[in-house]
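Chapter summary example.
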Amino acid sequence: MFYFLPWRVRGLITTVLMGTNTVVLCSLLFVAAFFKLLIPLSAWRRFCEWILIGISSLWVNNNALIIRLMHRIEWNIQGIENVSLREWYLVISNHQSWVDIIVLQTIFQGKIPFLKFFLKKELIWVPFLGIAWWALDFPFMKRYSNEFLMKHPELKGKDIEITRKACQKFKTKPVSIMNFVEGTRFTKAKHEKQNSPYKYLLRPKAGGVAFVLGAMGEYLNSLVNVTITYPCGVKNFIEFMCGKVTRIDVQVEITPITEDLLGDYFNDPVYREHFQNWVNQLWEKKDKDLDALFLQRSEELTNVVPEAMVSEISG
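The structure predicted for these 315 residues follows.
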């Protein structure tokens, strides 16, 4: 609607609107979180959780509306039809920019349960955000380093046990757990440093996914494998706010989580090798899918340019 405005103006307006949306709704969220913490009754906390998810969903919807009003983005989304708000999902994706989080929230809002991330237990002390994450039931995980376990072998396996207990509340309430398998955003420098065997991806970290499955595998129904591409080039968050992203392609592949994917990754070497091979195969396919998507986009541009030139000559 406001596409005619200069990109700097649109960027400023988008920032102000999304900032206002965040401040107002986070304030409401903190109030609801306070009352959830104040009264430790199960029924009351479930009611507060319903309000908290509603506030968070409204935040996502408002952000999506602001983006639609301020920027012209062509969305090409495939494979998202067979999902449900009543299922338990593990969502994985490639990671190129902080824009990925907005993309995932936008395409899945109202289609699957609200996206949640596994967080390190220490992050609960982050000012404001720690309270928000706790209030929204983001699962906090306790991880022990190998060095610590060598000194305290009696604690081996306790981290999975603690996290599994923290996830008990998800047994009766559908949830979507999000994991960026590469562990960090893709850059050429990181790609070269890793000597990654993939063309468009960093090496996957199987341990993170295995940790989620170890803690919640008995509850999760399906794996939602997301591949995000930006045909106009990967942009940072500020560039996105200024309307520099004009097209987003998303491929979604949904597969069941089978028994062979569940096991003790950190203590069973046979299962660990099997799981690593499975993750590597996922990433090999994702890399080929990305290659096909970029090739398709290149062919589209090749076909468009001559037509534009012909039109110009005819005119």
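To summarize the output: Confidence is low (pLDDT under 50) at residues 308-315.
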